[in-house]
Amino acid sequence: MMMMQRSSPQLWRKMGLKAFLFSTCSSTPSLSPPLVNKSLPILGPELPEVWIPNSSSPPPTNNRRSPFIFNHDAHEQTAVVIDGKLMADEIRSVIADEVSRMKSAIGKVPRLAVILVGERKDSQTYVRNKIKACQEVGIMSVMTELPEDCAESEVLNAVSSFNENPAVHGILVQLPLPQHMDEEKILNVVSLEKDVDGFHPLNIGNLAMTGREPLFIPCTPKACIELLLRSNVEIMGKKAVVIGRSNIVGLPTSLLLQRHHATVSVVHAFTKNPEEITREADIVVSAAGVANLVRGNWLKPGAIVIDVGTNPVKDPDSEYGYSLTGDVCYEEAVKVASAITPVPGGVGPMTIAMLLSNTLDSAKRAYRFT
Ligand SMILES: Nc1nc(=O)c2c([nH]1)NC[C@@H]1CN(c3ccc(C(=O)N[C@@H](CCC(=O)O)C(=O)O)cc3)C=[N+]21
């Protein structure tokens, strides 16, 4: 270990090469039959991402997130609570100033177009929150609502008309789309210059490649990094584990952490020992979409925890019969981690701030306003 730490990059590379030679020479697995069959694509089989938590004890039943409700064991808490709402408010106030500076200088304001298909209650709430957030900073918004059973071509037409409208700087197609629609086809049509969600394959590709700059970085991954940076967490050289590999969160978050020079492992539904791998991490970003998946014993003492999950769980005490819970078992994690984002009030509000920021950047780029 000591040798490794002191060695020069050249020596390190040589050692790497040696290790590679050993690994190829010491074991000679027989590769039969050869993998030439087209039905076994080299990209791997597509399998449903189903998480099976294998924890021995059930998580605490009280899912309340607020640290204030846990006064009785507050002395056991080691973690600083990262206040995403407060940090997002600070960013939103800077955005509001920028929007008004733009308005008085060139008489233009940014505009976000939102396309909502279907009547999902959660999607309606998210979209309403995004539009309200736009209003509060002076960003204009326009929304197209389409019924669940509309044709895919209607969604494509809505995207195209926003693509062609020069007064629109950002286009957001709320996900998930109804089952019968081809999400890939629809997202591919969103103009690269207006892709404020950062879901276009070219934006993701440029994010993945060293030395290239995507026009937009997806909002939730950007929010995770912003929360780390504003909490003065050093990312460079740290071990980070991302739990989940979705196109919209897990994958781009792992890419972005690598661009910040973290050593990144991705844990997913087929990982054999997720808790062991996660326990190695200095920084844990969980985006699995499974309530209370990450238990206290998954964490290294002092780890930084960013909880992306917003999972609805039954809660008879709450107004709508359910409340939002993260992927991380908060009550356990606050006793182990050194910092943690709450749900709600962590990544969610910051995600919306990043959407506003991307929309402002897009408008500035369109008008060459600096
Ligand atoms: N094209 C697209 N872009 C998205 O960015 C996108 C999407 N589709 N589909 C759904 C997910 C989910 N998402 C959230 C954003 C903010 C909160 C948020 O602000 N949550 C609040 C709580 C909100 C509440 O209490 O209802 C919080 O965590 O404090 C949550 C979730 C964006 N998504």
Automatic annotation (TrEMBL):
GO cellular component: cytosol
Gene3D superfamilies: Leucine Dehydrogenase, chain A, domain 1 (3.40.50.10860), NAD(P)-binding Rossmann-like Domain (3.40.50.720)
Record-annotated Tetrahydrofolate dehydrogenase/cyclohydrolase NAD(P)-binding domain positions: 218-366
CDD domains to which the protein is assigned, alphabetical: NAD_bind_m-THF_DH_Cyclohyd
Pathway involvement of the protein, from the record: One-carbon metabolism; tetrahydrofolate interconversion
UniProt keyword terms in alphabetical order: Hydrolase, Multifunctional enzyme, NADP, One-carbon metabolism, Oxidoreductase, Photorespiration
Catalytic activity: (6R)-5,10-methylene-5,6,7,8-tetrahydrofolate + NADP(+) = (6R)-5,10-methenyltetrahydrofolate + NADPH; (6R)-5,10-methenyltetrahydrofolate + H2O = (6R)-10-formyltetrahydrofolate + H(+)
Organism: Macleaya cordata (Five-seeded plume-poppy)
Taxonomic path: Eukaryota, Viridiplantae, Streptophyta, Embryophyta, Tracheophyta
Name of this chain's protein: Tetrahydrofolate dehydrogenase/cyclohydrolase
Single biological process term from Gene Ontology: photorespiration
The keyword NADP is annotated on this UniProt entry: yes
Record domain Tetrahydrofolate dehydrogenase/cyclohydrolase catalytic: where: 82-197
Keyword Hydrolase: yes
Family per similarity comment: Belongs to the tetrahydrofolate dehydrogenase/cyclohydrolase family.
Domain of life: Eukaryota
Assembly behavior: Homodimer.
PROSITE patterns assigned: THF_DHG_CYH_2
Function in brief: Catalyzes the oxidation of 5,10-methylenetetrahydrofolate to 5,10-methenyltetrahydrofolate and then the hydrolysis of 5,10-methenyltetrahydrofolate to 10-formyltetrahydrofolate.
Gene Ontology MF terms in the entry: methenyltetrahydrofolate cyclohydrolase activity; methylenetetrahydrofolate dehydrogenase (NADP+) activity
InterPro entries recorded: Aminoacid_DH-like_N_sf, NAD(P)-bd_dom_sf, THF_DH/CycHdrlase, THF_DH/CycHdrlase_cat_dom, THF_DH/CycHdrlase_CS, THF_DH/CycHdrlase_NAD-bd_dom
